[in-house]
Specification:
heterodimer; A: alpha+beta; four-stranded antiparallel beta sheet; 4 helices; globular; B: alpha+beta; Muramoyl-pentapeptide Carboxypeptidase, domain 2; lipoprotein (chain B); NO_sig/Golgi_transp_ligand-bd (chain B); ER-Golgi transport (chain B); endoplasmic reticulum (chain B)
Chain lengths: 181, 181
């Protein structure tokens, strides 16, 4: 859908804009990630409000996580989460084998370190959504591999292997004692 | 007839909201980062320029527009095809001068400001939607047309309508732009 292109481009510009105006260094990198994550947080809060205006009440945490994996992810990224795992004690691992915001990046390990910049906003999105559903959480993401293209000099449209996004979401029900970022 | 208690949310609308909310979060962050309105406006314009240079390819791929022979044709296409495709609105076009190089796009509805009540205090000269000006400018430059794009009127500042002015300057390249078939 056309809207998606606009959002993707806006997101990429936001990431490069935030980093362009910052200096080099570990501390600055952390600040930029925090900035992007906070923006995602705001958006996630607003989005989940509009989303759940007329939906049924959620039974429990797992129900909420399933909602995030199916409806929320489908609306935002046009596909469902591929795999959801949990230890039933507050940690959930969502796995997306073809993360929309990374599919346009080139193959190879060279850009793997930069992938985290493009995940910060989404982590904030999830955290904001959960926050407005009453769950305080920490969301982190990791990418194990970018799409890998065969070395033919051409760039086929469908990559062979997919990037994996595995945000680890730790949810705490005892909000008072949990100290969060 | 009373509304049913649980309704499926309008996913299409929510997807549009994602872009609008993200843009709002971006502007809010920029207002925190920059004190002067001119700086925020300039930054938004620059971001829009970066987006526009890439968006035009997406637009041309999706829309199959024919080659244009006049500035007014181009402005019509921006209003009736591009705006409709990406924002779902169709601004009306007026020509402002006899040599047909200055045009205005009048927006009755502006989806970007859907959640904006008013400009923040002390930010009276903020052009909230300046990203749009940058996008149009960047897109036109990629088809070898230099143009000045600014907001002439803005509903958020108290005007009756929102008006974007496009002034075409000289052509950037002597070679006519040919769309690859």
């Amino acid at each position: 859908m056309a809207d998606e292109a606009l959002f993707l481009l806006l997101h990429n510009e936001m990431v490069s804009g935030v980093y362009k105006s910052a200096e080099q260094g570990e501390v600055e990198n952390g600040r930029c990630i925090t900035k992007l994550e906070n923006m995602g947080f705001r958006v996630g809060q607003g989005l989940i409000e509009r989303f759940t205006k007329d939906t049924a009440r959620f039974k429990d945490e797992l129900d909420i996580m399933k909602f995030i994996c199916k409806d929320f992810w489908t609306t935002v990224f046009k596909k469902q989460i591929d795999n959801l795992r949990t230890n039933h004690q507050g940690i959930y691992v969502l796995q997306d084998n073809k993360f929309r915001l990374l599919t346009q990046m080139s193959a190879g390990k060279q850009y793997l370190e930069h992938a985290s910049k493009y995940l910060a906003f989404t982590c904030g999105l999830i955290r904001g959504g959960l926050s407005n559903l009453g769950i305080k959480s920490i969301v982190t993401a990791e990418v194990s591999s970018m799409p890998a293209y065969p070395d033919t000099g051409l760039h086929p449209k469908t990559p062979r292997s997919q990037p994996e996004l595995k945000p680890r979401v730790r949810c705490s029900t005892n909000c008072a004692t949990q100290v969060l970022r | 007839m009373p509304r049913p208690a649980h309704r499926k949310p309008d996913y299409h609308k929510i997807n549009k909201d994602l872009f609008v909310l993200t843009y709002g979060a971006l502007v809010a962050q920029l207002c925190k980062d920059y004190e002067k309105d001119e700086d925020v406006n300039k930054y938004l314009d620059k971001m829009g320029y970066g987006i526009g240079t890439r968006l035009v390819e997406d637009f041309l791929a999706r829309s199959c527009v024919r080659r244009c022979h006049s500035y007014s044709e181009i402005t019509d296409i921006i209003a009736q095809v591009a705006f409709k495709m990406y924002l779902g609105i169709t601004p009306s076009v007026t020509c402002n001068n006899s040599s047909r190089t200055e045009f205005s796009l009048i927006l009755d509805k502006n989806p970007l400001v859907e959640f904006v009540e008013e400009l923040p205090a002390g930010r009276s000269s903020l052009c909230y939607c300046n990203l749009l000006c940058g996008i149009i400018r960047g897109a036109l430059e990629m088809v070898h047309l230099a143009a000045d794009v600014t907001f002439l009127q803005d509903r958020l500042k108290g005007d009756r309508v929102t008006e974007i002015g496009i002034t075409f300057l000289r052509k950037l390249d002597e070679k006519k732009y040919r769309r690859k078939k």
